[in-house]
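During the no-cost extension, the postdoctoral fellow (Dr. R.K.) reprocessed legacy sequence entries with the updated structure-token encoder. One reprocessed record is reproduced below for audit purposes.
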Amino acid sequence: MIKFDNRQIRILVVDDTPANLEIAVKILEQEHYDLYIADSGSSALELIEKIDFDLILMDIMMPTMDGFETYTLIKEHEKNKDLPIIFLTAKVDIDSVVKGFELGAVDYIRKPFNGLELKARVRNHVELKKIREEAEQKNKSLLEAYETLEIIATTDPLTTLLNRREMLKRMEYERVNFERNQLPFSIIIADIDFFKKVNDTYGHDCGDHVLASVADILKENARKQDSISRWGGEEFLLMLPETDSNGAAILAEKLRIKIGESIFSTDTAEVKITMTFGISVFKGNEALDKLISKADVALYQGKESGRNRVVIFQPTNDNIAE
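Re-encoded structure tokens follow.
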């Protein structure tokens, strides 16, 4: 059984008859609850605006605003949707009881009160509320744990970009999707030029800062539907759904210029870098590793021809496209 301190349980008793309020309070005071009273529906609503209650005991028959109307107004507020309310009634007709349950009341208690019954019913519903809250908190914690595991499993910890495994998963999805819509998708492999020199000159902390900053630039300038991953070391891979080579080249050139114009500052250094981009397009009837190899070939051609440029894969007799 869940344990809780009754002194921290706030209970509101609503009844227009002072004698009923006095009796209910005397009985429940023996359990050391934090008790509040209201002599009308309107005064109850005022208290509920200011205080978060764990349970409400509500008389049905009250002038001006009866218990059913008060209940309905209480439940209009999102914060009260799970607040348990027990109706108090001197009536024994089944219609009143049924109406209360149909509204959503958790129980009803007859007047005049039986002390043992009142204590037992109140305690049961307080316990149920606390059990539900504990379960909800555990579920929330569990969901947060799953989300954390999902992040760990799918992202690169330094750059917070997708990792290689998740990118391959998304590329496979686009490959299968191509069979339905026949729309090409492009990939861009981007590599930081002379990155080893950055690490050797300024240290690995500076190198990590550059990698994380480049990742931010890629995220800020890519489209919402694009996927971006840290492919390995100083290499990044972008996947652009429903994009041909020209569209990929436009984005790659935009990124090349943006990165070339940026200064990556740390406490000890200001670093400028360039990047080279290789592009290939999936048009069907090929494996993903072939698609990636084509982008690698284009990247290599860019490196060989001077770096800091964008190259679209073009099949020749000397490369793997044949």
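The chain has a mean pLDDT of 93. The radius of gyration is 34 Å. The remaining legacy entries will be reprocessed before the final report is submitted.
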